[in-house]
């Protein structure tokens, strides 16, 4: 529709149509947008939320979308989507970090005298010969949350956490800030340039604290851990690396930041709870431990013309402007050759073996101007400039940064011909067409057609499919044992923003000549949609009166659209679907290995 509306000089003005419907099929908002930027429909969603409030309707409890990456945007637009959500931690596979396992002890301090006494034990250790000491540093403050779930104003710094040696001080300074001054020893520590305050975004914390107490002296000595990690080649994008990422990367532990303790209005309380003390201490403790591990790694050093090249020495390859790491590897044995891949090896060039690619699109101009991805999967060798290579500590090569999320890769849109009535020209049922080898079709297209098995061709494939089904239907036997969906409500809600299931089906593409494509479609469908038992009985009762008799099982294959209109289906929660998926894979691996 956007291709035919509001053209200017023949040019398309709108690129998309944003439509939101409710569970009754009513359109709540419908907006033509010029780009896919969130700013294009942010106002429309705000007006929708305001309209629901104005007329006394409930805010959305579940939101289905075709693009799950919009989750945070939708949650910000409709705070109701965050109600009672227990999100899955990014590093749920790692053991949680606990202060107790480090041997550190937490000491809360809430008076100026006790704070001065605690800080004095740190200041006394500053070397007199010009050296430095490092402390883990973090702060907490009150965050106002509205009844609707909005984040409001933030208060002044209420708590400072300082980790040093085997102790963590949790300093309650809200009263001191209210009086306009900090304890004297704490002020000295914050101003001291040889006391390194290590943490993530540490200079923001120091600046915020300095503004709150109206100090003219500059709070200095901040050391950002992400910058240290980048200098040592552990990460290549500071903006996407938080303290929890560094904890997972360096300490191999999960730092739990997804907690209600973090954002609340209780940090200025006179007595902090044990949960607050432990949460506050963790950030400072992790900061210090990460710093200590990073300082054990050397900063990658440039290669000079006079350096002796030793094969297998670990290296990092940088971009053409030397600002970011594009690959990791080692010096190749071929670097001492005169030529490599028809490229002359000069004093300015070096051959390296690449073991890990970080930026696939990076162009290696000295190697026929090829991109890294054009060389295929590692290991492979490239010729690059010495000035783009850094020698690094071998330990740094063993650290793997958090993997970025990647979008699914879709096969080309199916170009399968359709009959005039719109039905699919199925090569298995219609062999008069030319060969369609290499063509693919989405599961969503297959689902709207007869999924009953055909015996006309590909007998070997259908025999395997029947054997697999007879050995134990990979979905029915398991799903039929789930008697009461109400039991599912006892599980935590992981997200109220969900991927629209119809778009999920469109993400799966199968070869139109694959003998098991229909079986896969059936079993994927049956793993996701569970029939309502009462509706299923009604369908079977009606089907028994037909000539020839029909059952729910036969109708779901031969007349899928009819069945969807007359039988309600339920989508099970993730913990049930995961069980079904593993069962499905196990059965098929035994009968027909998936490739």
TrEMBL record:
**What sequence ranges are listed for the domain 3'-5' exonuclease?**
134-296
Q: Name one GO molecular function term.
A: metal ion binding
* Alphabetized UniProt keyword annotations: Exonuclease, Hydrolase, Magnesium, Metal-binding, Nuclease, Nucleus
Sorted alphabetically, the Gene Ontology cellular component annotations on this record are: nucleus
Q: Extract the coiled-coil ranges from the record.
A: none
Q: CDD domains under this entry?
A: WRN_exo (cd06141)
| Annotated compartments | Nucleus
One example of a Gene Ontology biological process annotation: nucleobase-containing compound metabolic process
What name goes with this protein? Answer: 3'-5' exonuclease
Q: What's the source species for this entry? A: Agaricus bisporus var. burnettii (strain JB137-S8 / ATCC MYA-4627 / FGSC 10392) (White button mushroom)
